[in-house]
Amino acid sequence: MKSERVLRIEGLCVKVGDAHILGGIDLEVRPGEVHAVMGPNGSGKSTLAHVLMGRHGYEVTAGTVTLDGTSLLELAPWKRAQSGLFLALQHPTEVPGVSLEAMLAEAAAAGGRDQVGIRESLLVEARRIGLDARLLDRPVNVDLSGGEKKRNEALQMSVIRPLYAVLDEIDSGLDVDALVAVAQRVKDATDEIGLGVLVITHFSRLLEVLEPDWVHVLSNGRIRASGGRELAERLEVEGYGGVLGEATDAPEVAVNLGVSETLITDPLA
Ligand code: ADP
Ligand code: MG
Description:
Distance between the termini: 41 Å
Order of helices and strands: EEEHEEHEEHHEHEHEHEEHEE
Mean pLDDT: 90
Oligomer: single chain
Number of domains: 1
CATH class: Alpha Beta
Strand order of the largest sheet: 6-9-10-3-11-12-14-13
Shape: globular
Bound molecules: adenosine-5'-diphosphate, magnesium ion
Strand content: 25-35%
Structural class: alpha/beta
């Protein structure tokens, strides 16, 4: 029997040292879906991204993560990548001495794919994302500007063609044109290869192009509200305080806010 196609996060609790950062995250991302995660600084968004990819230093104290039925949490990061998970980092790392093309060729080989078309694929994708082809011969991210690094993350995603992508503030540092190009490329991937996307962002500008199916607000390590695109618009106008303020006083566990919007409140928070 084929397993259900979904990236499923259930009851995920994470500690760093003595600090509890995530206090029970539930999220399901299906192929072709875009889920946006927004939330105040320090709420645990990047922690969630890091834990999904298996960065060391984070202790999962409860919960599970499965990708199309494969349990991820006990796998090394490279095996998670091989299973079809991709992470675009909020702060992409420079890797001197490793060429982008060689890295992507290795990734293709590890995924059992042909390495022959990598150069061509890089050139095609660089054009789509608007990254200067001359930058393709640099070692990974070395001496790229902040915006170029973000485009480079999107480029790697496009060439690798993962099943699910976690994009941590892929829009930060991008100029308006680059932002549209990157958002459009991600959106196209949801149609072309059925990419499931979990995108962390502060800006509804990205979401205007990417058109998320769901918007979630993470605050203090828990998802406090989930809704459609209109939730991002409300956040833009009212801020996190305005949208979440109602949650702190509400006695109910879930309060219906509107058509597709649910405010989830935690009585213990
Ligand atoms: P966000 O991405 O939502 O801004 P982060 O996930 O980066 O937030 O951080 C959430 C909280 O966890 C912050 O208070 C941050 O200082 C803390 N934190 C994250 N990673 C570590 C770490 N490796 N060591 C200590 N504290 C950490
Ligand atoms: Mg972050």
